[in-house]
Amino acid sequence: MTALLQVSGIEVAYGGVVAVRGLSLTAEPGAVVALLGSNGAGKSSTLRAISGLVQPRAGSIKFDGQELIGMRPEAIARLGIAHVPEGRGVFPGLTVLDNLRMAQFGAGTARQGDARAATNDVFGYFPILGEKARQAAGTLSGGQQQQLVIARALMQKPRLLILDEPSLGLAPAVVKEVLDVVAGLKLSGMAVILVDQFIREALRIADRAAVMEQGRIVLEGSIEDLSASSIAAAYLGREGSPVAAPAVPAGRGTERLTATVPGLQVRQLERAAAARGVAVDDLVGAALQRYLKARTSPAGRRK
Ligand SMILES: Nc1ncnc2c1ncn2[C@@H]1O[C@H](COP(=O)(O)OP(=O)(O)O)[C@@H](O)[C@H]1O
Ligand SMILES: [Mg+2]
Question: What is the mean pLDDT of residues 72-99?
Answer without folding.
Answer: 94
